[in-house]
Amino acid sequence: MPRDGQPAPNCYDAEPIPPAAREEIERLLCSGDLFRYTSEAAPVARLEAEFARHLGVHYALAVSSCSAALFLSLKALDLPRGARVLVPAFTFAAVPSAIVHADCEPVLVEVGKDFRVDLADFTAKFDDSIAAVLISHMRGHTSDMDAIMELAEARGVPVVEDAAHSLGTEWHGRKIGTIGKIGCFSFQSYKLVNAGEGGMLVTDDPEIAARAIIMSGAYEHNWKKHPGLQNSFVQWQNKLPLYNTRMQNLSAAVIRPQLPEIARRVRDGRANHDYVAARLNLSPWMQVPPALGPETRAPDSLQFNLEGDWSDAEALRFQDAAKARGVAVQVFGLSQDNARAFWNWQFLGDQPDLPKTRAMLMRACDLRLPARLKQPELDFIADAVLEAAAEVRG
């Protein structure tokens, strides 16, 4: 809906893919060389080396999705069948699905109004039955990694970071995804780097890297095209199942030219987020939780809470009023079959109620805010959201 002649911003299209990707894709199409293991210098191998350097880790494995990376992480940890894995209850359905796929059992942990793990519930559920922790930094909100790592290390329990939304985020200056034993990233279209689909597993542990590489589909002796792990590979030859979650060269060709753009996208995304957040926080009816002290965010979306005694009907009216003004706002818990609402994960069977997470989801709002937007577009969005709230509550 135009406002004063200005059309509503397009918050869904990603940035154009850099021209270098098109040139590389043309070369690959002409050669037909799309399989990652035809050459040690294939685009996927180059991407892995470049991504590892970017994060400052020893090993990176490119796979078909972040879900595949999470699944391989749990399998590479060699967890027993039925192992219990702590995971925040505010995440995307694919995260507990990856745990189930790895023959493990998700143990859902409460998440508070700040969209971060409730440490009291995390501590209470972290008993001797827990074999791993999978921390999902949902929508780029970093939970208290100091407290989480202290508890996990005291028990000798590995931590996997779901950093799908957190490429570029830092904790005490350390890159998210490099704090736990394994980090997993996404290149799905709505993420900071867009390949449509794709994922990356990173670690400094050579045994985990070797196991993940073989299970990802490095059959026969294709693992020899991954440098630096030959001793570990020999140990696992023919002893692990193959899940064939490899990335192919066209995806890598799309991703590689975007890596130099990460710093700019992080800078612009943070500036856009903070600008709109400051405007929304002036409203008595909305609140954007601040970053934690050690956290430097890299957001490409914005989440806020409806403050006060909003009814479900009012929250839905607010959602509709924003949409009528050209801005899509989604209340997580009031969106039918939302894959981020834990009560829709019926594949888990009966789960205990999580009242804090439920209450948060029923009033937490999701707003796409791409890094490419400019200030007039940001003002359009902020004005529409503020006016929608005033229409309902004024």
Itemize the secondary structure elements and their pairings.
Blueprint: H1 19-31, H2 43-55, E1 59-63, H3 66-76, E2 84-88, H4 94-101, E3 105-109, H5 119-125, E4 130-136, H6 145-155, E5 159-162, E6 170-171, E7 174-175, E8 182-186, E9 199-203, H7 206-217, H8 230-236, H9 249-255, H10 262-280, E10 286-287, E11 295-296, E12 301-306, H11 312-324, E13 330-331, H12 355-361, E14 364-368, H13 375-393
Parallel strand pairs: 2-3, 2-4, 4-5, 5-8
Antiparallel strand pairs: 1-9, 6-7, 6-11, 8-9, 10-12, 12-14, 13-14
Helix pairs in contact: 1-9, 2-9, 3-4, 3-7, 10-13, 11-13
Notes on the structure:
The protein is of the alpha/beta class. It is built from 13 helices and 14 strands. The strands form three sheets. A seven-stranded mixed beta sheet has the order 1-9-8-5-4-2-3, sandwiched between helices. A four-stranded antiparallel beta sheet has the order 10-12-14-13. The chain has a three-stranded antiparallel beta sheet with strand order 7-6-11, with no helix packed on it. Helix 3 packs across helix 7. The radius of gyration is 21 Å and the shape is globular. The two termini are 22 Å apart. The model has no long low-confidence stretch (mean pLDDT 96).
